[in-house]
Design goal:
single chain; alpha/beta; globular; six-stranded mixed β-sheet; 9 helices
Amino acid sequence: MLDIRSLRAGYGRLSALKSVDLTVKKGEIVFVVGPNGAGKSTLLKTISGLMTPTAGTISFNGETISGQPPERLCRKGLALVPEGRSIFRTLTVQENLLLGSMIRKDKAEAAADLDKALETFPILKARYRGIAGHLSGGEQQQLAIARAILQRPTLMMIDEPSLGLAPLVIDQVYESLRQLNAEGLTLLVVEQSTARILDLASRIYVLRNGHVALEGAARDLADGHALEEAYFGYSDHQAAQA
């Protein structure tokens, strides 16, 4: 579905991505993890058209999409839930959700998808007429995900869904991702922490200093040792000493 080869991107003279290769197959949940400054958010911004790559290719469903504008990519089935959620805080929950389906012409089906999103996230149904800025952090994250779903994407990218949330709320958000994937939605998720992801991920990439330090199936990384070594950039012996 998504195929990235030798991708480079950055900010002026600062290179944030240095020849990154990554694939996401239909039906997968792929996680990209790494420390601050690894290039994780830059990766999602470049895939979604918010940044232009300096080299390499991005293919989506067999079509090269490198450098295409975000609105065109949305219509092709790519959706991004950015870091910090970026909801419209002064609008109601209803208005935020309706903005998610603005690009669609199938109004009857969009209305049905809205009903389904409210079933998936019942707190949004309860706060439907309320101001979005009054929601808790976890509720705002659910709103951002639900708004992206209403674009009817085939691939949804989420930048740090657990950022700033309490552990119980993170569990709730992750369970919603599991449910969405079970219903057929392919997910590419960026996280800083490796906690919780092994149980949910199909495959995991560790991004460090703009490079892919490790890639593998979650079942092959279940003991966590290889993840820790790639994430922190030191050997098992050094990890034991730490």
